[in-house]
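Batch 3, record 17
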Amino acid sequence: MADLRLVLIQARYALLLSFRDPRAVVFGLAFPVVLLVMFNSIFVSGSSDTVHFAGGTISGEAYFTAGIAAYAIGLSTFTTLVVGLTTQRESGQLKRLRGTPMPPWTFLAAQVLRSVARGLMLVVALFAIGAIAFGVHLSAERLVGLVAYVALGTAVFTTLGMAVTALTPTAEAASAVGPFAVVILSFISGVFIPVDQLPNWLESVGKVFPLYHLADGLQTSLVSGGGTGLVGADVASLALWGLAGLLIAKRHFRWEPQTARA
Amino acid sequence: MERALVLGSRNGAAHVERPAIIVRGLRKSYGATAVLRGIDFEVHSGEVFGFLGPNGAGKTTAIEILEGYRRRTAGEVTVLGIDPGRPTRAWRDRIGLVLQECELDPLLTVAETLALYASFYTSPRSVDATAELVGLGVKRDARVRSLSGGEKRRLDVAVALIGDPELLFMDEPTTGFDPSARRDAWNVIEGLRALGKTLVLTTHYMDEAQHLSDRVAILREGEIVAIGRPAELAPAGTTSTVISFRLPDEVAIDALRGSVSAPLETVGGVVSLRTENAQRVLYELTCWAERERVELIGLQARSPTLEDVFLELTGGNHG
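Prediction for the assembled complex:
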């Protein structure tokens, strides 16, 4: 019970820090909002424009709103975490934490919690803009599915962030890998380009990665229809990636700087 | 259960008589390279123990084994009654660390940083009192990023203290300080001694070790070459005298060679020589100077300081 308190305290500080870090605010908050407005203004010519995908058919505005939300979750959890954790490791912050009686799992759990909280905030902000400016509508029934996707997606991207941190030696390398992975995947995951406009083989490549399934899940939750909108394939794929990330992080995560020291 | 254990050990007499640290035959190798070649020492409760040695002598390796960061290759080590090779949470609760090259989050304030670390310990000190103790009381709401180097290092010390540890490790606590910041840090460390803490510190600065430590160990190439009280170490380790002076600019040191029976060394214009027979060497030196009508500027003869002992024992590789 006392350890849960430690998780909450650390999550609160981590959240506080992500609002003080200009890089995290610009890339994790401002950037997705600008993208959302631009995509919906440039690419969607009229309300008759719709996108067909596995989950059903929705307006272009709704499609991009959900896609950009997935992209924002990727940036603000995976990318922010990879860059943040490698920097904290390199500067010795993680090593110092490891030397305290704080149980390591509470630090990692706090990172997950921080990311989920940030992910929910982002999605609320983006969907609110979508609703007000672009007539995007979310049905009450599908709210459960949406929240489940956001929570699952952020948790998965957090564990993947830890896994990539574990496998990336320096903060310099991480600041290249972190954004690059999310941006490249966005092109083939139905974020920047609707999947019905992608060649089949490229869509198949996209389907391997979790961003596709998060975007697909969020988009499905905006399709009007009954049920929660949870898609088995998306949930299963996300869960598998999350598990893989967790296993790699558990096995390879290091608290000490990875550069050789005398 | 853990809480009871910690409190019990704090209040109980179990750890008072036993040395805080016992090291026997400690070895550490990386592959074929031996970094520590079997060292033995004890640190008593309430003592300030200084670890000296040139870069690469194994100071940080030794201290990181004691801190529970590194595994040893061989030997027995006990820190507060526990094997640091298997660190426990209750054990970490009783220890404070000032590490080398270890930053704090630049975006948190001093008070936030201390409050965060305080939450990890079972009975932490007060945030404000601890900030006050290291002279950061007026900076409590300043971001870490805005602190000077000396202030950051003092915050490191405050973070190490926040859990109210019995034992503190400080790896080069004043490296990179200007002289006044160093004096401030010394005051803090002397304050800790007054609180009855056991302190293990490594340093490059001999005056620092001499000033702060009850006892010092000098490490060279993974072995302890001297151990004892700083004041005793100097005379006991050697009986020699240090004679030093400067020559006028127009006189080359070569002119002096052959006239005195001790090897000459120059550092930054100051000529110094070590001898077991000060009376004879001083006589030779002053005879030469009078004969050649040369002034020996700032001539002095003194007992070797800890620094001289250090340089002698570590083969002059100081730095």
